[in-house]
Write a structure and sequence with these properties.
The chain is of the alpha/beta class and 735 residues long. It has six domains: 1-76, no CATH class; 95-282 and 390-413, MutS, DNA mismatch repair protein, Chain A, domain 3 (Orthogonal Bundle); 293-369, no CATH class; 419-653, Rossmann fold; 654-689, no CATH class; 692-735. The longest helix is centred in the last third of the chain and has 35 residues, at 694-728. The protein is elongated. Residues 560-576 form the DNA mismatch repair proteins mutS family domain.
Length: 735
């Protein structure tokens, strides 16, 4: 969070203006409020600024208090990483948790062990990762896509090598070995705590020593398998890192030490760990020496008491040994916090060096302590050196990285993904792109192309991504914004998401679902697609849409990809169309240095019919093609969706046809169709609603005749009553 800038905020962030709901909404358009850790750190900084202002500045002294004022708030990203917020992850269905079907486990909280991955992009890859460290590395990769061209190129090359026909058998063996490697973090945790089994009821074959032995065996086999990969002569960085971190001789030694130490047959028989006799004489000797330190230190303390003056002997507490610090003499402190004795006078040949102070005692290094250091050395480090330690033999990070790469390769093989061409040009060109999730739930998926070019920035970059290189024909300007129209259910939202997912997967280092793709580096994917409402947020659905749009405007750069789907639908049609047109204009008229790549979908046809959006070479139009047959008997059969994107605008959303398909009554749909045509042409709806149809006119005449007849009958009835009243005389009840 950057707290310096030229433009000043109207109100101090730490003031009351941002303590209200309105202030929270404004902050949500500037920063990602879902990053709780970052927000907590920023809160600590704000509190410190408030404290300094209160202690160092005079009350209401604007000149002085400005030194601690916050000028602006901006977001900064990690170096070489693409920015994604929770809205983007949810809209693109990259990560999505759900409750585990096992009722004994927890809910859909991501931190809960009872959560499981739902249908998501990460879920497709996760099940191909075989080790816990591989799953952790894969998730980190998905949460932190990279913009480092070298790293992405290396990942793409490794996937291509793994998928070579000559490496098919080797790839299968790598997967087999990875499947046999357990979670070493848990195993080492058990060893450090002196636990030989996960639980007292667990069988011995699941104990930590058997797992450590199997880890050594399969890691060495995996190492040898990776070495025989056919790489075409060029070395692989992941192999080099694995060779630097994994010493097969040490790992074999670990396995040998375990095998020579544990009697696994006897262990399995009695279901408890059994040690073989005579394991290591050196380790036994070091352990015996270390265990004898208490008596040695007591004897050394007695010698020191004899060497110091008689008055100082009472202040010698004891001698102690600390790992890495060695042997030390402990002296008590006086009431002033100084040592009661700090050694003989200078020049006596025994210099006492103060090492540290702890709990009222001073720890000194003197001549006798140094002699013990020279004789014994750091005996604890020697004991650890004699014991097998996987932290010195193998780094689990290299195995996790290899496992995550094999998962990317396995998904690329299963779903027919291709390697993207990454470029520094600010271009997005896709041929026959597909939606990785949508094609799994339909019988046939129709692929589509995409071509966008963001702002060129500097002149050198502009020359590197010239329009002549990107255009389909000479002189055609490649747009930076593509606005999609078309009927409901025609595939507009799917198209927006599939393009964003292709860009995202390319920056993860994965192959992409397309026949061919040329993708320039994208620093941020910003979305106004899905509305995530919550009772914990004091925001309406429309307010959430506005916040997402403002967030996209404030954070978008020329390297960003912005998705806008049905913006403005949460308010009146007039206001919604005006807001959508203004948002499109904002991105279309941005300068070359800031104009992002934008994909938008809308049903506000009045924006174009009433020319609310000025024509610009940076704006392109397309629609999802349909086949309309007006000769069909039923209205719901008129439209056939082809799911193909073609240039140009659509003149109707065919919402009434979609209403029929979803069970709305025919009469309601017919009336809606008539009103829709009037609204599209800007005609007066009040006049149209005042006119009656032929059927309604007939019904009105019928009702009028009935009313007249009733009126006549009522008049005749009153005449008869009056005649009867005259004949019988006046009614005595009337006054």
């Amino acid at each position: 969070m950057n707290m310096a800038g030229d433009s000043a905020l109207e109100a101090d962030i730490s003031g009351s203006a941002f303590g209200s709901n309105q202030g929270n909404l404004r902050l949500g358009s500037l920063i990602n409020l879902s990053s709780r850790l970052s927000i907590g750190c920023a809160g600590a900084i704000l509190s410190e600024l408030q404290r300094r202002r209160a202690s160092e500045c005079l009350y209401r002294d604007q000149d002085v208090s400005a030194a601690h004022a916050i000028r602006t708030i901006t977001m900064f990203d990690l170096a070489n990483s693409m920015f994604l917020n929770d809205d983007t992850l949810d809209a693109l269905q990259i990560l999505r948790s759900e409750s585990h079907p096992d009722s004994q486990k927890g809910g859909p909280d991501k931190s809960s062990s009872g959560a499981k991955e739902s249908l998501s992009v990460y879920g497709l890859f996760q099940r191909h990762a075989r080790t816990p460290q591989g799953k952790a590395k894969l998730k980190q990769t998905f949460l932190r896509p990279s913009t480092d061209m070298g790293l992405l190129g290396e990942r793409h090359r490794i996937i291509a090598i793994l998928l070579r026909p000559e490496n098919s058998e080797t790839f299968t063996m790598i997967i087999k070995h990875l499947r046999m490697i357990k979670n070493m973090k848990a195993i080492m945790s058990h060893i450090q705590r002196g636990v030989d089994k996960p639980s007292s009821l667990a069988p011995a074959k699941r104990g930590v020593w058997k797992s450590l032995q199997r880890f050594s065996k399969f890691t060495v086999e995996l190492y040898e398998t990776v070495r025989v990969l056919e790489t075409g002569g060029a070395p692989l960085e992941v192999v080099n890192r694995m060779q630097a971190q994994v010493d097969p001789r040490q790992i074999m030694q670990v396995g040998k030490v375990v095998s020579d130490t544990i009697d696994f047959d006897a262990t399995e028989t009695i279901n408890d760990t059994v040690i073989l006799p005579g394991v290591s004489e050196d380790l036994d000797q070091l352990t015996r020496t270390y265990n004898g330190f208490p008596s040695l230190l007591q004897e050394t303390a007695r010698h020191i008491v004899r060497d110091v003056p008689e008055w100082a002997a009472a202040y010698i507490e004891h001698c102690i040994y600390y790992h890495q610090l060695g042997f030390l003499t402990v002296i008590s402190a006086n009431a002033n916090g100084e040592p009661n004795y700090d050694g003989p006078e200078p020049g006596a040949g025994d210099d006492w060096e103060r090492i540290f102070v702890h709990e009222g005692n001073f720890y000194f290094k003197n001549r006798r302590m140094k002699e013990l250091d020279d004789y014994f050395g750091d005996i604890v480090a020697q004991i650890h050196g004699e014991q097998p330690s996987t932290s010195l033999c193998c780094r689990k990070s290299s195995l996790g990285e290899l496992d995550s790469l094999t998962a990317l390769a396995a998904v690329a093989q299963q779903y027919n993904l291709t390697a993207p061409e990454m470029t520094e040009s600010n271009v997005l060109e896709i041929k026959n792109g597909r939606h990785l999730l949508q094609e799994l739930v339909v019988s046939a998926f129709v692929p589509n192309d995409c071509l966008l070019c963001g702002g060129n920035g500097s002149e050198s970059e502009s020359a590197g991504s010239s329009t002549s290189e990107l255009s389909h024909s000479e002189g055609e300007k490649t747009p930076s914004m593509l606005i999609l129209t078309g009927p409901n259910h025609s595939g507009k939202s799917v198209y927006l998401k599939q393009v964003a997912l292709i860009v995202y997967l390319a920056h993860v280092g994965s192959f992409v679902p397309a026949e061919w793709a040329r993708i320039g580096t994208v620093d941020r994917i910003l979305t106004r697609v899905s509305t995530r409402e919550s009772a914990a947020r004091p925001e309406s659905a429309f307010a959430i849409d506005m916040r997402q749009a403002a967030f996209s405007i404030n954070l978008a750069t020329r390297r960003s990809l912005v998705l806008i789907d049905e913006f403005g639908k949460g308010t009146s049609p007039v206001d919604g169309a005006a807001l959508a047109a203004a948002l499109f204009t904002q991105f279309a008229e941005a300068g070359e240095n800031v104009r992002p790549k934008v994909l938008a979908a809308t049903h506000f046809h009045e924006i174009f019919e009433q020319e609310l959006l000025a024509q610009s070479p940076t704006v392109g139009f397309a629609h999802m093609e349909i086949n309309v047959d007006y000769n069909t008997q039923y209205l719901e059969d008129q439209v056939t969706f082809l799911y193909t994107m073609v240039p140009g605008r659509s003149i109707s959303s065919f919402g009434t046809n979609c209403a029929l398909l979803n069970g709305i009554d025919d009469k309601i749909v017919a009336r809606a169709e008539a009103l829709s045509l009037l609204m599209a042409h800007g005609e007066d709806l009040s006049a149209a609603c005042a006119s009656l149809s032929e059927e309604e006119t007939k019904q009105l005449h019928k009702a009028e005749n009935i009313a007249r007849e009733l009126h006549v009958r009522a008049h005749n009835f009153k005449s008869i009553r009056r005649v009867l009243n005259v004949a019988d005389g006046p009614d005595p009840r009337r006054p």
